[in-house]
């Protein structure tokens, strides 16, 4: 037997594919979880490094600010500093010794600078540059810590913080001090983050000057080049440039120094794949093992299904005596075979029932044909009665029979849409029959504008509303019962109004009925016809048709139907 042509074999293959997909999906979900965890670790490390470096930068900046203030907190110190720059060093030293011996509170500038190195952690050099002096002052922990006059301040090997020297009372700047701090403290922060992937950090001054740059792991030359290129344009760093390739963290100090930290997303993805590779291999071997087990277990099952299918095909070709052998069937396969055999045993009985149903169906079709013949007989009979009444001089009776016949013919006609003019003709015959019954108590009036007569509306749109008036609204205790129908065009709307002076309804009842029309709720016995009319209007015109009940000025009810033709607007958007 051809096992591969068996549907069960196909289902087995489908199940195998689903199993592989489930295992793969599970592996992907776990890998995605690992990826998200790596992202979170990277973000935590970025936050850690940014916060630590922000704190360190703030500490160094505050130290520079405080020491600049200490060097210039009184006029005597400023005068001494100016003397250092004005006088040769020998003269300045002599002046300092004289003033020190005269017990004057004198600041010896080189000595003050020397003490800064012992107080400032990580301080490696101090420089001073005063306005109106060509020479500058420079000292270094690796050279002359007391400092000396130099022509130019050398570029920093550390991280330079600069601030303006100001007079204590006028706050007027007269120079600048530069203090350089060693990079190793920033390097220690970068290396202390509990994260193994590459990370690069940039420290920018308040003027977007690059003060520090280092990387843990492999240096990303492209990132370094792009950051420096953007800084060279004096507009700072555009974060959107890096969001696609890097996790990015920016931190600012209160003096607008910035710490930019980057972790490449590609490194996170590569690390995730390394962590997930073992899981992928495990999933692959589990899939192979499960597939082998499934195909071994289902082999006999497939052969049993093949035998059942072969017997079923024989029966479908007309061998109704064929039965499925039960001797090699087990479990649910045996139950299925028994069920099919029982079904075949019952087939002959079902064939007889089907034959009987076909005979009954033909009888029903004949009855439908007879039902179509009967109305024609009724129309002919009514026409005979009408002509007989006219020939006997009972013309009014003939008119009544004619109107009744027209109503009957209209009721059983199959058309679903009629013109407004045809609907009103039908309504006029209907009212005429009532008027014949109550000649002195009922009057009617139709005012149909010519431009509305050819409007196509659902059949029985107006008649049920008029019938509702005769059923529930006519007050037979008075003789001036009147119903009128008006149709006209107003603001691109066809407006149809059915107005009566009958018993009317309370405002509460009208409000409830209008709410029922809007919400299409289950109608009461009195409002079934109303809801049917509204339903057919909605089905035909959608939101371009509305129906509303209101009280007539004196007594009775006014029903207003509005129909918007040829547009897509909601009727409720029109005023009026």
Automatic annotation (TrEMBL):
Residues annotated as transmembrane: 15-35, 279-298
Membrane topology annotation: Multi-pass membrane protein
InterPro entries: Bact_2-comp_sensor_kinase (IPR050640), HAMP_dom (IPR003660), HATPase_C_sf (IPR036890), Sig_transdc_His_kin_internal (IPR010559)
Annotated GO MF terms: ATP binding; phosphorelay sensor kinase activity
Protein localization: Cell membrane
SUPFAM superfamilies: ATPase domain of HSP90 chaperone/DNA topoisomerase II/histidine kinase (SSF55874)
Gene Ontology cellular-component annotations: plasma membrane
Superkingdom, natural source: Bacteria
All residue ranges annotated as the HAMP domain in the record: 299-352
Cross-referenced PANTHER family: SENSOR HISTIDINE KINASE YPDA, SENSOR PROTEIN KINASE HPTS
Name of the featured protein: Two-component system, sensor histidine kinase YesM
Species of provenance: Pisciglobus halotolerans
């Amino acid at each position: 037997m051809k096992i591969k042509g068996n549907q069960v074999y196909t289902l087995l293959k489908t199940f195998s594919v689903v199993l592989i997909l489930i295992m793969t999906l599970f592996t992907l979900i776990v890998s995605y979880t690992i990826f998200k965890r790596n992202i979170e670790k990277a973000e935590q490390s970025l936050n850690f490094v940014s916060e630590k470096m922000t704190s360190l930068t703030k500490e160094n900046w505050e130290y520079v600010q405080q020491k600049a203030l200490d060097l210039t907190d009184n006029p005597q110190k400023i005068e001494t500093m100016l003397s250092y720059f004005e006088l040769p060093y020998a003269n300045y030293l002599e002046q300092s010794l004289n003033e020190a011996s005269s017990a004057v509170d004198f600041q010896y500038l080189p000595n003050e600078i020397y003490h800064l190195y012992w107080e400032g952690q990580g301080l490696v050099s101090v420089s001073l540059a005063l306005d109106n002096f060509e020479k500058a002052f420079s000292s270094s922990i690796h050279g002359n810590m007391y400092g000396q006059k130099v022509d130019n301040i050398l570029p920093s090997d550390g991280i330079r913080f600069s601030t303006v020297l100001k007079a204590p009372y006028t706050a007027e700047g007269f120079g600048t001090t530069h203090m350089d701090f060693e990079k190793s403290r920033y390097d220690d922060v970068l290396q202390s983050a509990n994260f193994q992937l590459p990370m690069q950090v940039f420290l920018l001054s308040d003027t977007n000057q690059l003060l520090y740059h280092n990387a843990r792991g492999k240096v990303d030359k492209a990132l370094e080049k792009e950051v420096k290129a953007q800084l060279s344009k004096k507009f700072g760093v555009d974060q959107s440039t890096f969001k696609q390739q890097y996790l990015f963290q920016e931190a600012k100090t209160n003096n607008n120094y910035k710490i930019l930290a980057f972790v490449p997303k590609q490194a996170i993805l590569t690390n995730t794949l390394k962590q997930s590779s073992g899981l992928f291999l495990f999933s692959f071997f589990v899939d192979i093992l499960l597939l082998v087990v499934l195909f071994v277990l289902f082999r006999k099952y497939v052969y049993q299904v093949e035998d059942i299918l072969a017997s079923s095909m024989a029966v479908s070709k007309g061998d109704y005596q064929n039965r499925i052998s039960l001797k090699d069937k087990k479990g649910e396969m045996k139950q299925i075979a028994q069920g099919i055999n029982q079904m075949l045993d019952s087939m002959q009985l079902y064939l007889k029932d089907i034959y009987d149903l076909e005979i009954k169906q033909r009888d029903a079709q004949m009855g439908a044909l007879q039902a179509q013949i009967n109305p024609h007989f009724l129309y002919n009979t009514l026409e005979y009665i009408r002509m007989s009444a006219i020939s006997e001089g009972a013309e009014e009776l003939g008119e009544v029979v004619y109107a009744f016949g027209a109503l009957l013919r209209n009721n059983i006609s199959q058309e679903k849409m009629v013109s407004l003019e045809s609907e009103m003709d039908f309504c006029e015959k209907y009212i005429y029959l009532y008027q014949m019954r109550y000649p002195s108590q009922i009057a009617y009036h139709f005012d149909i504008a010519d431009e509305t007569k050819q409007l196509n509306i659902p059949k029985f749109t107006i008649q049920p509303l008029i019938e509702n008036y005769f059923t529930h609204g006519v007050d037979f205790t008075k003789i001036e019962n009147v119903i009128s129908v008006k149709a006209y065009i107003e603001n691109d709307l066809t407006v149809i109004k059915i107005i009566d002076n009958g018993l009317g309804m309370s405002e509460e009842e009208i409000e409830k009925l209008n709410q029922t029309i809007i919400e299409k709720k289950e109608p009461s016995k009195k409002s079934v016809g109303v809801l049917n009319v509204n339903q057919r209007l909605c089905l035909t015109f959608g939101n371009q048709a509305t129906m509303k009940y209101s009280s007539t000025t004196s007594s009775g009810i006014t029903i207003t139907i509005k129909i918007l033709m040829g547009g897509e607007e909601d009727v409720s958007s029109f005023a009026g």
